[in-house]
Amino acid sequence: MGTAITFKRPDGKDASGYLANAARGNAPGVVVIQEWWGLSDQIKGLCDRFALAGFDALAPDLYKGKVVPYHDTDSANKEMNSLDFMDATTQTVRGASQYLARNGAKVGLTGFCLGGAVTVIGATRIPELAAGVVFYGIPPEQAAKPADVKIPLQAHFANKDDWCTPELVNGFEKAMKAAGKSLELFRYDAEHAFVNEQRQAVHDREAAELAWGRATEFFRKHLG
């Protein structure tokens, strides 16, 4: 449904990604950020789904063509740890946001796992954004303080998550509330990456559909 595109980062360098356009011409935009596996078919599928829901969706390729197979967690960890999160967010993700905003549309940001952490960083550093939806990812405080979040956030977390743990989520929620920030937070009795239907071991269809409905409703409210 979508297509591979190239777009400009604020520093003038080229970045690539997967774009799926909504049927209407003046649709709001959603930037979709990959898991630690890379720009997989599953993430492209989510862009297609956003397009069907009425949003132009662009997933920037933060690994520049590298996609890690689902079983290879060591390689995924290596790719994630070698990613410059600040450059990825303030340049590549911001460039994607600017691309979607070029016709005056409002733009939101969402991401999963690694992309969830990028979404929180983007919420503090990308002025083009109007709203963000976080899926099971929180960056370290030195990367993005809850007090610096500039947009309304919705967040989805799994109770059986040993990476983005319930304790971490409680701390994030507390810090956002203490800073007086807008946060809708949902917890699911599911495992990390429960939205990914390609990973049968962790996919929870009921939780995924509930989260999807909440996310698209939130974006419609804030992006139009």
Automatic annotation (TrEMBL):
Alphabetized InterPro entries for the sequence: AB_hydrolase_fold, Dienelactn_hydro, Dienelactone_hydrolase-like
SUPFAM superfamilies tied to this protein: alpha/beta-Hydrolases (SSF53474)
Top-level taxon of origin: Bacteria
Keywords: Hydrolase
Domain Dienelactone hydrolase: 17-222
Pfam name, any one: DLH
Organism field: Bradyrhizobium frederickii
Name of the molecule in the record: Dienelactone hydrolase family protein
An annotated Gene Ontology molecular function: hydrolase activity
Record flagged with keyword Magnesium: no
